[in-house]
Structures are given as structure tokens and as C-alpha cells.
Amino acid sequence: MSFQVSIQSSQHNFQVEADETLLEAALRQGLTLPYGCRDGACGACRGKVLSGRIDHGKAQIHALSVPDRAAGFALFCCAKAQSDLVVECKEARSLKDFPVKTMPARVQTLTLAAPDVMILELKLPASERLQFLAGQYIDILLKDGKRRAFSLANAPHDDACLQLHIRQTPGGQFTGHVFGTMKERDILRFNGPHGTFFLREDSKKPILMIAGGTGFAPIKAMIEHAIAEKSDRPITLYWGGRASVDLYHAALAEQWASTHPHIRFVPVLSEPDAVWGGRRGLVHEVAMQDFPDLSAHQVYVCGAPGMVVAARRDLVSRCQLPEDQFFADSFDFACDSGNESGNEPGNNSATDVAQHAQ
Ligand SMILES: Cc1cc2nc3c(=O)[nH]c(=O)nc-3n(C[C@H](O)[C@H](O)[C@H](O)COP(=O)(O)OP(=O)(O)OC[C@H]3O[C@@H](n4cnc5c(N)ncnc54)[C@H](O)[C@@H]3O)c2cc1C
Ligand code: FES
């Protein structure tokens, strides 16, 4: 059985099943309501029920008092609908609504997706969740105070684990550890979310996405978020690698394209073998052949710094893309000039580099 929930101030509507919380349903459908513990303890998800009936579930009394309940307040991470509802709550509209946190996380799974790509799933402590926008990244905090930036590959609604796609850097301190000695149940610390590479949902323009290698990670999060939100904006994804092994999630991208008529996927290889029947060349150049006029598009690019720089230059100068419609994260190396105590959240080298690249 499901019910209709209307948020009065924004006029956003979502469906909630009888056995799920209002927060779970809203996140699943792409709405960014605030939350913290998701356990009825912190009060971050508090809102008001203006009409309709709910069950308060496991809301804790210190976070939602008896007078609060009588006045119509509810903790949306615990509340379940018993009828159609009209509610009032805050919806996150800007990056400021997503607090930067430092947290421990346990390595849940390590999956080799390609010879040099490891998919790492991180589990947060039971009472913690990370709120972020699809496309943002976190900084892994190393024991010596250095940081290493990695994009979140899961969409915000799918946050039971945080997923990272990690390419091995030859001689790399952290990625060497991931491919060498890291094991399941190890504990890491990270800080985030960071960055301004996220889907601009206030636009209706068709979207061109260009990913190189593990630059697919934040693009995956954005596309899965758009699908969850039932957006019908046309999306064309070009994903480039040297050989087909580099497109380690091609089957997933093909599945998006085959199940959603507004999503297209174009794999591109720069050094294919003789049997490759697909597109060849540099990924952004292949995209430009198909989109000579980008004046009415929005473009999202992620991958190696050289690719990001070339894409920005060429798409703006040769395809009439307005510069403010180009969004990118550039996978630069950390400069290791600071340490954790010296770098306030949002002021670390990786953040600066990523934001510089936009
Ligand atoms: C915002 C952001 C998001 C990112 N997301 C991802 C992601 O999702 N997936 C992913 O795979 N990567 C991502 N990266 C890149 C990732 O952060 C680096 O690959 C990682 O920091 C490497 O760490 P390391 O400790 O293994 O390498 P390091 O120990 O830092 O360096 C490894 C080697 O590279 C050399 N090196 C250092 N600087 C440079 C340089 N400027 N140019 C060439 N060589 C250099 C070093 O000498 C050393 O030999 C992201 C980067 C940024 C900024
Ligand atoms: S998120 Fe903490 S009480 Fe709901």
C-alpha cells in the first residue's frame, strides 16, 4: 500500500510505501531532505505534518518530545505514513546544506573491476550517514596526515555503503595500499563531502557527459540519481578508455541505455584491438564529432587533467558551449603540501584543484 506526500512550500510530491519511512521514500525519489543519524536521535530530519496520520516509529523522546508530537512535528527518518500527507520540511538547495564531516568507515568489499581498477565499498558506523550531492567526492585521510580525493560512485539515495572506483597509480602511496595490503574490515577515515561537481537539476537542457577511466565514478552517481528522480532530460554518455578492459562497467551503462529511452551510451577506445567495432579516438573529440553545436547543452566532464583541460577548451571554442554550462572534476594528484590539521574542510588541496578545474 502506498500514500501520497506533498511538501507544502516546494509543492514537491512523492509516494511512500506503508513500510518505509518518509525520509527513505523522499531520498529514493531524488528529493534532498536533511538528515543525520537516520536513527531517530539527532533531530536533523525534523519536519511537520500539516495533515494526515503517521506512526512516529522509533523516534527517541529526547529528539522529539511529547509536546512536539502533539504540535505535529515528526522525525522523517522514523515516521511512516498511515494516510496521504501534507508536510512541511526543509529541502536542501545548496552545498551549504550538506555538512562536511570527518568519519571512520569500514572496508566492506574490495572488488577488482579491471586489472588496475578496484571498487571499494565503505560502510559507515551504524548511527551515521553521509549526506551529499551525486557527483561529489571525499578525501581519504591517511595516517601521516595526507589526503587522497576519490569521487563517490553511488547516488545519495543508495547510501548503505559509499562506493569508490580507485585506479592504481604506479608508485602511488594510497592506491598502492588499496591494491596491496588493504583487506576487508580495515578501518579508514575520511572527510567530506567536497566539490561542486554535481548535477544542476534546475536546468532542463539536454546533458552531454564525458568520462575518462575512473572518471566514470561520479558520472555513475549522477545518472543513477537522475534515474531515481525520474528525470527525462536527455543524457548522452561518452566513456573513454584505452582498451575495452578500461570500461569496467560498460554492461551497466548499456543497461541504462537499453531501459531508459532518454539515455544513450557511446563507448570510445583510443587503442582498441582489431575486433573492436565501436568508436575510436580521444573521447571528447568523438563527442564533438556527434555534437558540433552545444549551445543549448549542459556538459559534465570527469577524468584525467589533460582530458578535462582539452574538453573545456575545445567544447567552448569549437562547439559554442557556453562556458558556464561546463562542469568538471579533474583527477589531479594531491600536492601533499598540507596535513589534516592544517587543512580545514573545503580548503584542502584536492578541493582547490577540483574547484579550480570548473
Ligand atoms: C576531486 C578529485 C576526485 C578524484 N576522484 C578519483 C576517483 O574517483 N578515482 C580515481 O581513481 N582517482 C580519483 N582522483 C585521483 C586520485 O586522488 C589520485 O589518483 C590519488 O590521489 C593517487 O594517490 P596515491 O597516494 O596512490 O598516489 P601518490 O602517492 O599521490 O602519487 C603517485 C605517483 O604519482 C606521481 N605524481 C604525483 N603528482 C603527480 C603529478 N601531478 N603528475 C604526474 N605524476 C604525479 C608521484 O610522484 C608518485 O610516483 C581524484 C582526484 C581529485 C582531485
Ligand atoms: S536523521 Fe537523526 S533523527 Fe532523523
Give the number of DSSP strands.
19
**Biggest sheet character:** 6 strands, antiparallel
Structural class assignment? alpha/beta
Distinct small-molecule ligands in the complex: flavin-adenine dinucleotide, FE2/S2 (inorganic) cluster
* CATH topology-level fold name of the largest domain: Rossmann fold
- Rg from alpha-carbon coordinates: 21 Å
* Number of domain units: 3
Strand content: 25-35%
Mean pLDDT, all residues? 89
What is the class of the largest domain in the CATH system? Alpha Beta
Sum up the overall morphology in one term: globular
Poorly predicted runs of 5 or more residues? 337-358
Helical run tally: 8
Question: How do the helices and strands line up, and which of them pair or pack?
Answer:
Blueprint: E1 2-7, E2 13-17, H1 22-28, E3 46-51, E4 54-55, H2 66-70, E5 73-75, E6 80-81, E7 85-88, E8 101-114, E9 117-123, E10 137-141, E11 147-151, E12 162-167, H3 173-180, E13 187-194, E14 207-212, H4 216-228, E15 235-241, H5 250-259, E16 263-269, E17 279-280, H6 283-290, E18 298-303, H7 305-318, E19 326-330, H8 349-356
The structure holds flavin-adenine dinucleotide and FE2/S2 (inorganic) cluster (FES).
The site of FE2/S2 (inorganic) cluster has 14 residues, from loops.
Structure commentary:
- The chain is α/β, with parallel strands linked by helices.
- The protein has eight helices and 19 strands.
- The chain has three domains: 2-93, Ubiquitin-like (UB roll) (Roll), CATH 3.10.20.30; 96-196, Elongation Factor Tu (Ef-tu), domain 3, CATH 2.40.30; 207-330, 3-Layer(aba) Sandwich (Rossmann fold), CATH 3.40.50.80.
- Helices cover 20% and strands 30% of the residues.
- The strands form four sheets. It has a six-stranded antiparallel β-sheet with strand order 11-10-13-8-9-12, sandwiched between helices. Strands 17-16-15-14-18-19 form a six-stranded parallel β-sheet, sandwiched between helices.
- Strand 8 and strand 9 form a beta hairpin.
- The longest helix has 14 residues, at 305-318.
- The structure holds flavin-adenine dinucleotide (FAD) and FE2/S2 (inorganic) cluster.
- FE2/S2 (inorganic) cluster binds next to loops.
